[in-house]
Automatic annotation (TrEMBL), chain A:
SUPFAM superfamilies named among the record's database cross-references: MetI-like
Record flagged with keyword Transport: yes
Name of the protein in question: Putative ABC transporter permease protein y4oQ
Cited PANTHER family: GLUCOSE IMPORT SYSTEM PERMEASE PROTEIN GLCT, TREHALOSE TRANSPORT SYSTEM PERMEASE PROTEIN SUGA
Annotated GO biological process: transmembrane transport
The keyword Transmembrane helix belongs to this UniProt entry's keyword annotation: yes
Domain of life: Bacteria
Membrane topology, as annotated: Multi-pass membrane protein
Location of this chain's protein in the cell: Cell membrane
PROSITE patterns: ABC_TM1 (PS50928)
TrEMBL record, chain B:
PANTHER family (alphabetical): ARABINOSE-BINDING PROTEIN-RELATED (PTHR43649), DIACETYLCHITOBIOSE BINDING PROTEIN DASA (PTHR43649:SF12)
UniProt name for this protein: Erythritol/L-threitol-binding protein
Classification via Pfam families: SBP_bac_1
From TrEMBL, chain C:
Topological type in the membrane: Multi-pass membrane protein
CDD domains: TM_PBP2
PANTHER family referenced in this protein's UniProt entry, alphabetically: INNER MEMBRANE ABC TRANSPORTER PERMEASE PROTEIN YCJP, MALTOSE TRANSPORT SYSTEM PERMEASE-RELATED
UniProt domain ABC transmembrane type-1: residue ranges: 74-266
One of the Pfam families matching this protein, by short name: BPD_transp_1
Signal peptide from the UniProt entry: none
Spans through the membrane: 12-33, 78-99, 111-133, 145-163, 192-213, 245-266
Protein name: Trehalose transport system permease protein SugB
Entries under InterPro entries matching the protein: BP-dep_ABC_trans_perm, MetI-like, MetI-like_sf
GO cellular component, as recorded: plasma membrane
The gene coding this protein: sugB_3
GO biological process annotation, one example: transmembrane transport
Record localization: Cell membrane
Keyword line: Cell membrane, Membrane, Transmembrane, Transmembrane helix, Transport
Length: 295, 433, 281
C-alpha cells in the first residue's frame, strides 16, 4: 500500500536526520551528568579521596538547611528576573526599530552585534575599571553633571544591579539579533495581505508580527533564562561574589564549594539542585510561553 | 711508619673524590639530558625572572624546560585539576598556602629524601638553613619539607614622601599614630589610607594587626586546636584595622583587592598603603605609576605588642605524578640554590634566602628604605604562620574573611562578630585534623 | 499620501533614526573605552580625570604581537571554533528540521526536545574534573578535539532548538508542493528550507562560532601549551602584581577581527537567503 511505503520512507528519513545529532549530544553529556549526580550522594573531600563515602541525600538536606545557600537562591532569582526582563524589553524595542524604515540599519545591526563578540573576560575587566569609585570613567561622567561618585560594584546595595547591567549589556545583542531575524523571516505575503486589509503599522506589529515570532521569541527567552541562571564568569571577575555576599549567586556558591572548599559532594548536590530548578523554569516557560513543541 | 703514612695518604687521595669537595662534583648534571620538564607556574614576577636563567640550566644539563604560565585564578584551577587527577601534566608546580592540603593529599613530593640524593644535589653548597625560616615553616608539613620558598613578602607601610614632607607629617610608628594620620589625610584625599577589604584578601593584613596587638589566630601554632582571635587583644587589633578601612579607606573598600589599592596608589589617590612589600616595583616603574620616586617605605607600625607583620611566600614543589622526578628535582634544587637565587634577585628583587636579601648588589638596585622595611619585617618575631597550616584553608579564609569584611562594611560589635567566627573556625580546625 | 503627511512621515523616520543611533553610540561606549585603552600607556590607562586625549601609542599592539603567541592562539581558536560550528550545524540542522515538521517528527518529540534542553541546564563548572579525567585517559589533553567535543555539548543543543523555531516559521505547504512535484524528502529540505531558513541558520552559526571563540573554562582545563586559545591569551595579561591593560585590551581588540570576518561571510549568505525568499513565487 502506498501509505505503508511512504511511512517507512518517512521513518527512514526522520531517523537519518535526527540520529547523528542526538547520539552525539546525549553521548557527550551523559557521562559528566551521571558522574555529578553520583558524586552528589557522597561525602567527598577532594584532598582525601580515600575517605569518600556514600551518604545518600544528606548533602541535599544540608543544603536546604544552609542559610547561605538559601539566600544565594533568592538572590539568583532576583538577579535573573532583573536581567531577563530588561533584555526582553530592550531587545524587542531595538529589533522593532531596526526593522522599521530607519536609515543605515545594516550598519546599525553590526554595531549592536559588537558587545556580544567581545571576549567576556575583557568585558568583565573593562566594566570593573569603568566602575572604579576613584578612577572610573562612569563616575567622571556623573561628576560632570554634578552627581556624586557612586560605588557601583563595590557597594553593598548597588553591586547586584551593577552586575545585572553588565550582563544585560553583554547579552541583549543576542536578543536583538534573534528577534530581528525572526521579524525578517516573516514571509512578505503575510504582511502584504495585512496591508491590503488596511491594517496600520502598529496593528501589523501587535496582531501579525509578534504572534508569528512567538516561537523564536520564547526560545530566545528560554535560553537567556537558562544562561543567566548559570552566569558565573563575569560575576566572578567583577566582584567574586562580594561585597560580602551581595552578588553570590547559586553558581558562585557552587563554585566555592567545589573548587574553593573542595567539598565535591556538597558542590555537586548544589549543581544538581540548580539544574533541577532551571529545568522546572524551562518547563514553565515552555508550557505557558506557548513554545509549541507540537506544531 | 713511613710506608703506613704513604699508604694512608694514597688512600686519602683515592678516596677524596668519593667524599667529595664542595662544588657539586658529585652531581651528575648530564645524566638526564634529553628530558623535558613542564613547569606549572603562576603569572608572578618570579616566573618572569626564571625565564632568564633556564637556558643556562639547559646548557648545563641538556634538560629542556617548558614553562606553562597562567594568571592567578586560572592557575589555581588548572593546578587543582592536574594535581587531584594525578595527570602529571606538570612536573614542577608553583605552590602557595595550599601546601598543607596538597601534601596531606599526597599530591606533592616530600623533598627531604630527595636532598640526600648526592647525584642530584650538593646538599652542603645548597645551604638549606639559608632559606628564611619563617617562609620555610609555611611549607613544612609534619616536619618534612614539601616545597622550597622562592619569593617572600612582608607587610610594610607605603607612604608618599613628598606629601608627608609638605605637610610636615611624621611617619607613623604605631597604630595609634597611623590612625590619626589617616584621619587627617582623609579630609583631603579620597582615602587617608588604602587597605584591602575584600573578604578573602583582607585576612592576611588584618592578621598582622591582630598579632601586633598581642592576639593570635590559633591557640597552638603547630596543632591548631582552637581559634583564639576573639581574645581582648585580638578584638582590639581587628577593630583597629576594620575601623581604619571603614572610616578612612577609599569608597568601596569593602570589595577592594590588592589590585584596586595598587591602582589608586599609583595614580596618587591616597598617601598611605598598608600591604605586602611585593608591590614596590609597581610603584617605582615610571611607565605604570605617577608616583615613581616619591614613595617611602617604612616597617609596619607597631601595636602594643610590637610590629608583627604577616608575610607570604610562593614556593616550588614537585608533583608526585611526575614521571621525571629525578630530572625535576635536579632543576628544583638548582634554581633555588644560592648562586642562582642571587641572579634572580638582581633581576626581580625577590628572594626567600636570607643571604641574598643582604647582598650588596641588591642594595644598589632597590630603595634602601624598602630593603630595611622588608628586613625588619623578616626579623620580626611572629607568633604563628600567616595562614594556618591546615587542609581546609579556603574555608578558613572564607569564614574569618567574612567576619572581618562585615566589620569593614558596617560598624558592629566587634566582639560579637569575632566570637561567632571563632566558633566556626575552631570547627574547621577540628575537621582538618 | 498628502505632502503634509509625507513630511510628517519623513520627520518620524529621522526622529527614530537619531534615537536609535544615539542609543547605539551610548551602547558602544565600553567598547570604545576598551579600544582607547589599547592605545594608552599603563600609567595613562587609569588616570583620573580620564584622559580622553592622550599620547596614543601602538606599543601595546607591538607587545602583543611579539611577546605573546597571538597568532598561535588565533589559529587554535579558529580551528576549534570553525570545526565546532561546522560539525555542530551539520548535525543539528537536519535534526532541527525534522523536529519542526509535524509530518516528520517522531511520536516522543516533546521528550526529545526537552532532553536536548536538559543537557544545557547543568552548570559547566561541575563538568570540569570528570571531563578532564576522561580526556586524560583518552590522551586527548592539549588537542583540539577535546575542546571541540566540549563546545559541541552547547552548540548542538542550542542549534537544534534555535533552528527548529526558525524553520517553524516557514509554512510546510512549500515543501508539500515540492514533494508533489516529485522531489524526495531530502531534496525538498535542501531546496526549500536551506535557502529560506538561511537567516536562522546564519544567526545560529554566528552565535555558535562566537560561543566557541570566546569560551574560556573548558579551553583552560583541556588545552596545554600547544592549543592555548585567544581568551586565555587575553587573561595572560592579568598578573600577580598588576593587570597590564594595554596588552589585555590590544589582544581583545585583535580578537574581534576573525569573528567580524566570519560574520561578514555569514552575512552574505543571509542576504542571499533573504533575496531568494523575496523572489519565490
Amino acid at each position: 500500500m502506498r501509505g505503508g511505503l511512504q511511512e517507512r520512507e518517512i521513518r527512514r528519513f526522520r531517523w537519518a536526520m535526527l540520529a547523528p545529532g542526538l547520539i552525539v549530544l546525549f553521548a557527550i553529556n551523559a557521562v559528566p551528568i551521571i558522574d555529578t549526580l553520583l558524586t552528589s550522594f557522597n561525602d567527598f573531600y577532594l584532598p582525601r579521596p580515600q575517605q569518600e563515602k556514600f551518604i545518600g541525600l544528606a548533602n541535599y538536606v544540608n543544603l536546604f538547611k544552609d542559610a547561605r545557600f538559601l539566600s544565594a537562591l533568592g538572590r539568583t532569582f532576583k538577579f535573573v528576573a532583573l536581567v531577563v526582563s530588561t533584555e526582553i524589553v530592550l531587545g524587542l524595542s531595538i529589533a522593532i526599530l531596526l526593522t522599521s524604515d530607519i536609515k543605515a540599519s545594516k550598519a546599525l545591526r553590526s554595531v549592536f552585534l559588537l558587545p556580544i563578540i567581545l571576549t567576556p573576560i575583557t568585558t568583565a575587566f573593562m566594566w570593573r575599571i569603568m566602575f572604579s569609585p576613584t578612577l572610573g570613567v562612569f563616575n567622571y561622567f556623573l561628576s560632570l553633571v554634578g552627581i556624586e561618585p557612586q560605588q557601583w560594584i563595590y557597594s553593598v546595595d548597588q553591586a547586584l544591579p551593577s552586575v545585572a547591567m553588565v550582563i544585560t549589556w553583554c547579552k541583549t545583542p543576542f536578543m536583538i539579533m534573534v528577534f530581528y531575524t525572526g521579524l525578517l523571516s516573516i514571509p512578505d505575503d503575510v504582511i502584504d495581505a495585512a496591508m491590503i486589509d488596511g491594517a496600520s503599522r502598529w496593528q501589523q506589529m501587535i496582531h501579525i508580527k509578534l504572534p508569528l515570532i512567538r516561537p523564536v521569541f520564547f526560545v530566545a527567552i528560554l535560553f537567556q533564562l537558562i544562561d543567566t541562571f548559570k552566569e558565573f564568569d563575569l560575576t566572578f571577575i567583577l566582584t567574586r561574589g562580594g561585597p560580602g555576599s551581595t552578588t553570590e549567586w547559586l553558581s558562585v556558591y557552587t563554585y566555592l564549594n567545589s573548587f574553593g572548599f573542595l567539598k565535591m559532594g556538597y558542590g555537586s548536590a548544589s549543581a544538581i539542585i540548580m539544574s533541577v530548578l532551571i529545568t522546572i523554569i524551562a518547563a514553565l516557560v515552555v508550557k505557558f510561553g506557548g513554545v509549541n513543541l507540537e506544531q | 711508619m713511613r710506608k703506613l703514612m704513604v699508604a694512608v695518604l694514597c688512600c686519602l687521595v683515592f678516596l677524596a673524590p668519593v667524599f667529595g669537595q664542595a662544588g657539586g662534583d658529585q652531581v651528575q648534571w648530564r645524566k638526564y639530558a634529553g628530558t623535558s620538564l613542564y613547569l606549572g607556574m603562576n603569572k608572578h614576577i618570579y616566573t618572569t625572572t626564571i625565564r632568564k636563567v633556564i637556558d643556562e640550566f639547559t646548557a648545563k644539563t641538556g634538560i629542556k624546560i617548558v614553562i606553562d604560565e597562567y594568571a592567578q585564578d586560572e592557575f589555581m584551577n588548572k593546578r587543582l585539576v592536574d594535581l587531584s587527577s594525578g595527570a602529571g601534566a606538570f612536573d614542577i608546580v608553583m605552590m602557595d598556602s595550599i601546601a598543607t592540603q596538597a601534601a596531606q593529599a599526597g599530591w606533592i613530593e616530600n623533598l627531604d629524601p630527595w636532598f640526600e640524593r648526592k647525584d642530584l644535589v650538593d646538599k652542603k653548597a645548597y645551604n638549606f638553613q639559608d632559606l628564611s625560616p619563617s617562609f620555610r615553616k609555611a611549607f613544612t608539613v609534619n616536619g618534612s619539607t614539601y616545597a622550597i620558598p622562592v619569593s617572600g613578602e612582608k607587610q610594610i607601610l607605603y607612604y608618599r614622601k613628598d606629601i608627608f614632607k609638605e605637610k610636615n607629617l611624621k611617619v607613623p610608628a604605631t597604630f595609634d599614630e597611623l590612625f590619626e594620620t589617616a584621619k587627617t589625610l582623609k579630609k583631603e584625599y579620597p582615602a587617608g589610607i588604602l587597605l584591602r577589604g575584600q573578604k578573602i584578601h583582607t585576612v592576611s593584613n588584618t592578621t598582622g594587626v591582630i598579632w601586633s596587638y598581642g592576639g593570635k589566630i590559633a591557640d597552638d601554632p603547630a596543632k591548631y586546636n582552637k581559634a583564639v582571635f576573639n581574645s581582648p587583644e585580638g578584638i582590639k587589633g581587628a577593630d583597629m584595622y576594620t575601623t581604619m578601612a571603614r572610616e578612612f579607606g577609599p569608597a568601596g573598600v569593602g570589595n577592594y583587592t590588592w589590585y584596586e589599592c595598587v591602582s589608586d596608589f599609583q595614580q596618587g589617590k591616597a598617601p598611605m598603603y598598608l600591604d605586602m612589600s611585593v608591590f614596590m616595583s609597581q610603584f617605582e616603574d615610571k611607565e605604570k605609576s605617577l608616583v615613581a620616586g616619591k614613595v617611602g617605605y617604612a616597617p609596619m607600625p607597631a601595636g602594643p605588642a610590637g610590629s608583627k607583620p604577616t608575610g607570604g611566600a610562593w614556593a616550588i614543589s614537585m608533583s608526585t605524578a611526575s614521571k621525571k622526578k629525578d630530572a625535576a628535582f635536579m632543576f628544583l634544587s638548582w634554581v633555588t640554590s644560592p648562586e642562582v637565587c642571587v641572579k634572580l634577585a638582581l633581576e626581580g628583587g625577590i628572594s626567600a634566602r636570607s643571604s641574598v636579601l643582604g647582598h650588596p648588589s641588591l642594595a644598589a638596585k632597590y630603595p634602601a628604605d624598602w630593603l630595611s622595611a622588608f628586613s625588619a619585617g623578616l626579623a620580626a618575631d611572629v607568633p604563628e604562620l600567616t595562614f594556618p597550616l591546615i587542609s581546609k584553608n579556603e574555608e578558613y579564609l572564607d569564614t574569618i574573611g567574612t567576619a572581618f569584611n562585615s566589620l569593614i562594611l558596617k560598624k558592629q560589635d566587634v566582639k560579637a562578630v569575632l566570637d561567632d567566627a571563632a566558633i566556626k573556625v575552631t570547627k574547621i580546625f577540628q575537621e582538618s585534623k | 499620501m498628502s505632502s503634509k503627511a509625507r513630511r510628517k512621515k519623513g520627520y518620524g523616520v529621522w526622529v527614530k533614526t537619531i534615537l536609535i543611533w544615539g542609543f547605539a553610540v551610548l551602547y558602544l561606549f565600553p567598547l570604545v573605552w576598551t579600544f582607547s585603552l589599547s592605545l594608552k600607556t599603563q600609567v595613562d590607562a587609569l588616570s583620573y580625570p580620564p584622559k580622553f586625549i592622550s599620547i596614543l601609542t601602538l606599543s601595546n599592539y607591538v607587545k602583543v604581537w611579539s611577546e605573546s603567541d597571538f597568532l598561535k592562539y588565533c589559529l587554535n581558536s579558529l580551528i576549534i571554533a570553525l570545526s565546532a560550528t561546522v560539525i555542530g550545524l551539520t548535525l543539528a540542522t537536519p535534526a532541527a528540521y525534522v523536529l519542526s515538521r509535524k509530518r516528520y517528527k517522531p511520536k516522543g518529540s516533546k521528550y526529545i526536545l526537552f532532553g536536548v534542553l536538559s543537557t544545557r541546564v547543568v552548570p559547566q563548572i561541575t563538568f570540569m574534573i570528570p571531563f578532564f579525567i576522561l580526556f586524560r585517559k583518552l590522551r586527548l589533553i592539549d588537542t583540539h578535539i577535546s575542546v571541540i567535543i566540549m563546545h559541541l555539548t552547547i552548540i548542538l543543543g542550542f542549534g537544534i532548538w534555535m533552528m527548529k523555531s526558525y524553520f517553524q516559521e516557514i509554512p510546510f505547504e512549500l515543501e508539500e508542493s515540492a514533494l508533489i512535484d516529485g522531489c524526495n524528502y531530502f531534496t525538498a529540505f535542501r531546496r526549500i528550507i536551506l535557502p529560506l531558513g538561511a537567516p536562522g541558520i546564519a544567526t545560529t552559526a554566528i552565535f555558535s562560532f562566537n560561543y566557541s571563540w570566546n569560551e574560556f573554562l573548558y579551553s583552560l582545563i583541556l588545552t596545554g601549551k600547544n592549543t592555548k586559545t585567544v581568551p586565555l591569551g587575553v587573561y595572560n595579561w592579568v598578573g600577580y602584581e598588576e593587570i597590564n591593560w594595554g596588552g589585555l585590551t590590544a589582544t581583545a581588540i585583535l580578537a574581534l577581527v576573525p569573528i567580524l570576518i566570519f560574520y561578514g561571510f555569514v552575512q552574505r549568505g543571509l542576504v542571499r537567503g533573504l533575496t531568494m525568499g523575496a523572489v519565490k513565487g
